[in-house]
Write a structure and sequence with these properties.
It contains 14 helices and 15 strands. By secondary structure, it is of the alpha/beta class. The protein starts with a strand and ends with a helix. It binds S-adenosylmethionine.
């Protein structure tokens, strides 16, 4: 057991040579950014006096950071839960270590996460942060998330969602994945679609307000609204991405009944879906989060937030990997990203880096226009 600092919190945790779920209680320092983003988001949404739930709380670090770092008026109470006795002991110890005494703001449970949620009256914020897939907890979470509440979901089974195992994606997420250069965005959008489908069964509409893909995981924050019409509106944004593996042409489509040829090079198009074709971010919330991030002086957080702020202004599904576009379209040289961005802006089109992949650009440009601009730079 070691004493660790994260954010403004000092806490005890088990540390192993390898981050593994075999640790007596799980703590992954790589997920600090995940917790940083959660603090930023909760501070940036227009909500006070929230009732928060951490059904998979482990060391309690996330909840303790919320109690210590969030603006005072944000938290009404936080419920910590973990099925592991060891974890619950550690949560209690860590609350004490951080001198958090106010019993009225904290509740601690030692239950299976589904029982914990279903036995509750509901929450304004539920944070699902599991090992692997969040599937096992989705139904209970959507049942217990309040109107105007926020559901936060992490998934670390990126292999299934990104097309390493096609059957796993069909079986667990009811969609076809694609293993290509923007497979992480496809995976993120398939995960969003699956969670929205689970919610729609309960006439709840989940709109992503902040989503990202990083390291070994996906993370999405949804705003929840109630009503059949609102749920229908969400489902209308589910569709497909058509993709040409030869020239990298892509477009979105409502269906894939008529298998099409690539209009650019005549190869047969492949597809991914169904997936969420709507926005990954709420621009207003992203702007607020970016402002808050700058106050932290945390380089990783500031960088992630700046890139996402820029890319959130562009309405596109997928992005272009510059070197791959050059190779697949038999162009001469790979232009510098900065120069290419400048040239695309000159053509009065929107363009930004993407947080998902280095040396790639998110833009509303068509492949044809992009190839032309690169040819001119060459
Ligand atoms: C990935 S860890 C959570 C990490 C934590 N949220 C954080 O930010 O550090 C997953 C936790 O879920 C707990 N867990 C797994 N399955 C559970 C279940 N069915 N019910 C309750 N807790 C569960 C494990 O004991 C483990 O502590």
């Amino acid at each position: 057991m070691e004493t660790i600092n994260e954010g403004k919190v000092r806490f005890k945790s088990y540390v192993g040579d390898k981050i593994s779920k075999k640790l007596p209680v799980f703590y992954n320092p790589v997920m600090k950014l995940n917790r940083d983003v959660s603090v930023l988001l909760l501070d940036s949404v227009d909500k006070k006096e929230m009732q928060l739930a951490l059904p998979l709380a482990a060391t309690g670090i996330r909840g303790i950071r919320f109690l210590i770092e969030l603006k005072k008026e944000k938290v009404k109470f936080i419920s910590f839960n973990d099925k592991s006795d060891e974890a619950v002991k550690l949560i209690k110890g860590n609350l004490k270590l951080n001198k958090i005494k106010s019993k009225d703001k904290i509740k601690i449970f030692n239950l299976d996460a589904n029982n914990f949620l279903l036995n509750s009256k509901g929450f304004d914020y539920i944070d699902i942060d599991p090992f692997g897939s969040p599937n096992f907890l989705l139904d209970s979470a959507v049942k217990r998330i309040a109107r105007n509440g926020i559901l936060a979901v992490t998934a670390t089974d990126t292999a299934a969602l990104c097309g390493s195992s096609k059957n796993a994606c069909l079986r667990k997420y009811w969609s076809k994945a694609l293993k290509n250069e923007f497979c992480h965005e496809i995976g993120l959008r398939i995960l969003i679609k699956k969670i929205q489908e689970v919610a729609s069964q309960h006439d709840k509409a989940l709109k992503p307000i902040f989503s990202y893909s990083k390291d070994h995981y996906f993370r999405i924050f949804f705003h929840c609204e109630k009503g059949k019409k609102k749920a229908d509106e969400i489902i209308k944004n589910h569709g497909y991405v058509l993709y040409c593996k030869d020239c990298l042409f892509r477009e979105t489509a409502a269906d894939v009944f008529n298998s099409k040829e690539c209009p650019f090079c005549n190869s047969k198009l492949d597809y991914a879906g169904k997936l969420w074709l709507g926005q990954l971010w709420d621009k207003k919330i992203v702007t607020k989060m970016n402002k808050e991030a700058k106050k932290t002086k945390d380089k990783d957080l500031i960088k992630l937030m700046q890139i996402i702020t820029d890319e959130s202004k562009i309405n596109s599904v997928g992005f272009y990997d510059i070197a791959k576009v050059v190779k697949h379209n038999k162009l001469k040289h790979v232009p510098k990203k900065e120069l290419l961005i400048k040239e695309i802006k000159k053509a009065k089109l929107k363009v930004a880096e993407t947080h998902i992949r280095p040396n790639s650009i998110r833009s509303d440009i068509t492949l044809k226009e992009l190839v032309k601009i690169i040819r001119n730079i060459n």
